[in-house]
Automatic annotation (TrEMBL):
GO terms of molecular function: metal ion binding; peptidase activity
CDD domains: M20_dipept_like
GO biological process, one term: proteolysis
Protein name, as recorded: Dipeptidase
Keyword check for Hydrolase: yes
Organism, scientific name: Maribacter flavus
Peptidase M20 dimerisation domain segment(s): 199-358
Keywords: Hydrolase, Metal-binding, Protease
Highest taxon above the source species: Bacteria
Keyword Iron: no
PANTHER family per the UniProt record, alphabetical: BETA-ALA-HIS DIPEPTIDASE, SUCCINYL-DIAMINOPIMELATE DESUCCINYLASE
Amino acid sequence: MQNVKEYIAQHKDRFLQELIELLKIPSISADSAFSQDVLDTAEAVKKALEKAGCDLVEIHETDGYPIVYGEKILNTNLPTVLVYGHYDVQPPDPMDLWNSPPFEPVIKKTELHPEGAIFARGACDDKGQMYMHVKALEFMVKTDQLPCNVKFMIEGEEEVGSNNLSTYVSQNKEKLKNDIILISDTGMIANDVPSITTGLRGLSYVEVEVTGPNRDLHSGLYGGAVANPINILAKMIASLHDGNNHITIPGFYDKVQELSDEERAEMAKAPFSLEVYQKALDIDSVYGEKGYTTNERNSIRPTLDVNGIWGGYIGEGAKTVIASKAYAKISMRLVPNQDWREITELFKRHFESIAPKGVKVKVKPHHGGQGYVTPIDTDGYQAASKAYETTFGKKPIPQRSGGSIPIVSLFEKELDSKTILMGFGLDSDAIHSPNEHFGVWNYLKGIETIPYFYEYFTEMKKSS
Ligand code: BES
Ligand code: MN
Ligand code: MN
């Protein structure tokens, strides 16, 4: 690959400025107050793809936010890379915890990012990482080094469950036909410890409602004599884990794929410092399922977590009241072979069954998706590994992630192709949290690494 470093050095300021402009648009898919901004972002992505060298770019309407499709087809005999990413972002709240406004990007140095990091909602997840692919394409097209065909599919509903993407994918199988799917929407271990994500967890997300008496009651007149929905909900939630932090839902672990001792030993080789981990989070100890390490707990093991819980009086001062209702939002991260619909059903049945007399329980499923694991003995993985080796000077470590991109398993099913997860973010980049950021070094390293993937993948495909 000729002069990719040089090209980046020459255009670095513009690459940063373009990303900053994109980050200024608050494309919050969860909040309808921002719907025009989400649509504007789709337009901005379309323009960016056109400028970078796509021959065809279309905005495909859906029942929700549009999908931006772009392509540059050199020759149908050449392999095709399909790039997926998302232009929507998570809501920024709580706002008061941001050190600078979430949609006014600034570059600041941090301990882990001595060359600076861009602070803004979506900087890492996923506008920054998606835009690396746009700039990598620009480089390959402008310097006449694009070795194969490329297609882009950038959606605007990833953060709310990708509800309309599955329909689009199943209706456009021919258009989306490819040899490999490439996604940068995950992370790596550290800037000097490159890694490639080889697995994602599945997800089942539910909301529960516990109803006691038909109205809020005086906690003196009625307290002790009727079921308090908040007390009951807390008790029910607490019972979902046992003393070893195993999940107690019957059947929950039945299909969980267990790793062999060799696989676990391989995993344990990835550099990890418990001390640094605890210090970064200001905790004096980690916590989790007995018999597993921290890295196993957050990747190859399923979990159940309350994401939010509410009910009763939370205003200033005290109000003596027994609320009529209590609520919680609960997510379960799933691992290969667990089916999210089945798990949702198991949860519902169990949660309803443990409700004591005196309350009514409702379980409302939200969204979900299957997990994913990818083998490493494929052309796709090997090409990615070689690309990292070229630009990082080190072989990347394969690593399963705890996060979810539910659409990936669907791609495999519908389009019959594997996904390579080339993430360049760090866990400490605070995605979904206040002060999300993305290292300038990481952004540019991504742009540098991606073209090598294209080159090596095309070579491997031609010779196989
Ligand atoms: N990019 C993340 C997922 C991710 C981040 C995977 C880091 C691995 C490492 C994605 O945008 C995301 O937030 N996914 C959601 C699920 C979705 C259904 C809302 C998640 O994992 O909570
Ligand atoms: Mn993402
Ligand atoms: Mn996300």
